[in-house]
Amino acid sequence: MAKITFITNDGEKTTLEGTSGSVMSLAVENGISGIDGDCGGVCSCATCHVHVAEEDMERVGEASEIEAVMLELADDVTEFSRLSCQIEISEGIDGIVLTVAE
Amino acid sequence: MDDPMKSQEVCAIIGASHAGVNCAFALRKEGWKGKIIMYDGDPELPYHRPPLSKAYLSAGDIMGLTPLKSEAAYLKEDIVLRLGTRINAIHPKRKEIILENGDSQAYHKLVIATGARPIIPRIPGIETATHLYPLRTAAHVNCIQEAIKSGAGKEVVIIGGGYIGLETAASLKKLGANVKVLEREERILARVTAPVMSDFFHQLHTENDVEVLTGKNVVSIESNGNQNTVTCEDGSHYIADLIIVGVGIKVNVEMAEKAGIKIKNGILVDNSARTNDKDIYAIGDCTYHFNTYYDRFVRLESVQNAVDQAKIAAAAICGKEAGYNAIPWFWSDQFDVKLQMVGLSEGYDEVIIRKENTDNCFSLWYFIGDDLLSVDAVNNAKAYVWGTKFLKSRVPIDKEKLKDSTVDLKAIPKV
Ligand SMILES: Cc1cc2nc3c(=O)[nH]c(=O)nc-3n(C[C@H](O)[C@H](O)[C@H](O)COP(=O)(O)OP(=O)(O)OC[C@H]3O[C@@H](n4cnc5c(N)ncnc54)[C@H](O)[C@@H]3O)c2cc1C
Ligand code: FES
């Protein structure tokens, strides 16, 4: 089980609990605005872009090669950018804070 | 004049799939304060279609459908979902739609997002075949999975070597079936890619023990109750206990046509997804729309188009003029190969192949003269991304550099 906090563009903070699956699915299931997941989570659309809080980056890990390339299609990319469909929920990421990119 | 922001106004949406659902949410984002009521004949909470032939099918029972949005999200945005409810007619003069139970619903704005249905070709014996299904809906996949559970699915014949047929072949192969793909044309994917790509996928399937047979026009299907014999024009026969039909789609436009809405290879819409009736919009697979980038009308079958048109229609309904000018993109997953496509290749006069140093990693670049039209990338997200950028900026490409994989993609524009 992991608690994940999303900060959306309007500044709203939502903390959700998940046990498995991707962070994108958790966000979509709970209607987190700004995470669309148009491709259903296969790293093809870049509509699930989040910024990982700096202090959580190490635990979340860096983007894979394909993901990093796909991120080039997103706006506002930083070194803390990830595509949330590529982040698996596990206890290891309990407590992380993600800001939805726009 | 209608005020789109009035809270008593109704926007009705027919069809709750990629296009309809995204439109409903985009309407709220654009500030639509009125009611939103969305109808679909399908009883399932609206779901992603692409996984149906990919992960969802090969996962057997383990994986659930991937919902487009959660139930909670519809509630939160005050979007009324009427699932399992078909719409039978549109009355533009009275501004109402008629539900299948005869009830009517008035609208101020109407969005038609009725998509498409699979074509079932008129092959003698097709109605009486055992375990024969198309693949477009969750119900279709459930039928296929039930058939497999009942012991069928050992000998599978797939009619049609397009993306859905090939993805289904790969997924059923993973479940251990013997799979044959029967394609009428001389190569698979003939309608959508260059011959090199057809050859690549032909080989990929062959290597994975899927039999791909081309030039196979199915002329009859005979069932003995448990098994079918599929006969082709050239006299060949194939035994199948499960048949999947993937020969293309037919757009759902009959209801719109009856209502006097202009049809031309789909529901004809302008650049803001509006039909010839100013209060009726159409979005997604069912539309024939203008693509500014390619300067022509097109009909597309893709999630990208459904989502982007949905947003354009929502903006237009809320009184903001936004024109549709997206560059189409698409993907397909088969075995461990990821194909990503951007642009429309139709009309090309040259294809350049760029092979990277890794196995099974290459891209096709389609040109007309010096203009880049589209890129198909196989296990090569980089080519897909740079292709997208070059298309967007319309920079001229140095073809010699493009062919040379030692030149970084970044550096292939002409200087
Ligand atoms: C197996 C499969 C794999 C695919 N893979 C990909 C892929 O990898 N990438 C990609 O980009 N695209 C893919 N597609 C295409 C993509 O799914 C479609 O382009 C997309 O679903 C179009 O969305 P839509 O909302 O326009 O239409 P549809 O998804 O067809 O939805 C139309 C909806 O309208 C409803 N409806 C129709 N008439 C009525 C009526 N009279 N009353 C009430 N409801 C009605 C239908 O029940 C349906 O739910 C795939 C499609 C399939 C079937
Ligand atoms: S959901 Fe499409 S890239 Fe993440």
Automatic annotation (TrEMBL), chain A:
Cleavable signal peptide: none
Indicate the segments annotated as coiled coil, or none if absent: none
Q: Which residues form the 2Fe-2S ferredoxin-type domain?
A: 2-102
Protein keywords:
2Fe-2S, Iron, Iron-sulfur, Metal-binding
The cofactor(s) it depends on are: [2Fe-2S] cluster
Instruction: Output the Pfam families linked to this UniProt entry.
Output: Fer2
Which Gene3D superfamilies does the annotation name?
3.10.20.30
Instruction: Provide any one GO MF term from the record.
Output: metal ion binding
Q: Give the record's GO biological process terms.
A: P450-containing electron transport chain
* PANTHER family, per database record: FERREDOXIN-2, MITOCHONDRIAL, FERREDOXIN/ADRENODOXIN
Similarity section:
Belongs to the adrenodoxin/putidaredoxin family.
What is this protein called in UniProt? 2Fe-2S ferredoxin
UniProtKB/TrEMBL annotation, chain B:
Q: PANTHER family this protein is in?
A: APOPTOSIS-INDUCING FACTOR 1 (PTHR43557), RIESKE DOMAIN-CONTAINING PROTEIN-RELATED (PTHR43557:SF2)
What are the top taxonomic ranks of the organism? Bacteria, Pseudomonadati, Bacteroidota, Saprospiria, Saprospirales
What cofactor is needed? FAD
What Gene3D superfamilies has UniProt attached to this entry? Answer: 3.30.390.30, FAD/NAD(P)-binding domain
**Pfam families from the entry?**
Pyr_redox_2, Reductase_C
Ranges for domain Reductase C-terminal: 329-412
Which positions fall inside the FAD/NAD(P)-binding domain?
A: 11-310
> Does this UniProt record's set of keywords contain Flavoprotein?
yes
Record's protein name? Ferredoxin reductase
**GO cellular component terms listed in the entry, alphabetical order:** cytoplasm
- MF-aspect GO terms: oxidoreductase activity, acting on NAD(P)H
> Organism source for this protein?
Portibacter lacus
* Record's keyword terms, sorted: FAD, Flavoprotein, Oxidoreductase
Highest taxon, organism lineage: Bacteria
